[in-house]
């Protein structure tokens, strides 16, 4: 948008446009946190170390569909796209329309699809894009603060949406995730990243390779 175009906008839109120009992703992220603090896990995006450690177990050459819940302003998006095969798809799901608009505007990659919707509807969302299952699902949603049974509904839906041998990757600021994943995932690996604001717990919930032979629960 040129400066003369900006002058033609109403005052509120001019302020918003100038803020986005001045602060970029940080401004959009901060605005999202103020509008929906329960749905945004942190006021500060994840560190590079957290991103590398969280994504390290993914065998990228085998990935056809990668899904993310709560992508925010895309902190993980470029690192994932840098590793994703050329013929793969990356679906990012967020309930905040400001984040979705920002992602669509700033990530011009044909593999990337930003969806305004709920993580609990992941099965319908991936099916609408032609997929039966996701290979990996990443989430930074603040699961312990979600209302009612929403967190459990997301865990169940994610387990159903994943292919056998796939994994649910979660980064959080507390250990609530372990009890959330335990009923549905065969193995739960854990990590910790101190150099993050705030220090971050990392979880990888692996779906059994053979669901018919596996019992629910963490071995």
Automatic annotation (TrEMBL):
What are the protein's UniProt keywords?
A: Methyltransferase, Transferase
Q: Where is the Methyltransferase type domain?
A: 68-167
Asked whether the keyword Methyltransferase is assigned, the reply is yes
Q: Which domain of life is it from?
A: Bacteria
The protein's matches in Gene3D superfamilies, at most eight in alphabetical order, are given as: Vaccinia Virus protein VP39
InterPro entries xrefs: Methyltransf_12 (IPR013217), SAM-dependent_MTases_sf (IPR029063)
Biological process terms in GO annotation: methylation
One Pfam family recorded for the sequence: Methyltransf_12
Task: Note the SUPFAM superfamilies from the entry.
Answer: S-adenosyl-L-methionine-dependent methyltransferases
Q: Which CDD domains match?
A: AdoMet_MTases
User: What GO molecular-function term can you cite, just one?
Assistant: methyltransferase activity
Record's protein name: Methyltransferase
Q: Which organism is it from?
A: Blastomonas fulva
